[in-house]
Design goal:
By secondary structure, the protein is an alpha+beta fold. Helices cover 33% and strands 12% of the residues. Strands 1-2 form a two-stranded antiparallel ribbon. Helix 2 runs antiparallel to helix 3 (77-89).
């Protein structure tokens, strides 16, 4: 039988941001690229508004997002370059 205290549910917002809990608190982090056009927490809205960037969950997640942006055909070259620069400059949490 599963103990209910062992179950964790993580909700990921459309823009790829989730709040992860730790023993000493919680932190919002970008766990995937998500829908870049999401007006609340999509990376495109974040970049255009020059908000403090939400850190990536890990270097791997950040690298995967960079790759996903680099191969998108629906973005103009200048916007793609801006997004790639924004992603590269955004910090990430250390891998556990």
């Amino acid at each position: 039988m599963i103990d209910a205290s062992d179950i964790r549910v993580t909700l990921v917002r459309p823009g790829g941001v989730a709040t992860k809990t730790f023993a000493d608190g919680a932190a919002a982090m970008r766990v995937c690229l998500g829908y870049i056009h999401d007006p609340d927490d999509g990376i495109l809205a974040e970049m255009k508004a020059k908000h403090e960037p939400v850190p990536w969950a890990s270097a791997l997640v950040r690298d995967e997002a960079s790759h996903a942006v680099s191969v998108r055909t629906d973005l103009k070259d200048d916007l793609r370059d801006q997004l790639l620069a924004w992603i590269a400059a955004t910090p990430y949490f250390e891998d556990a």
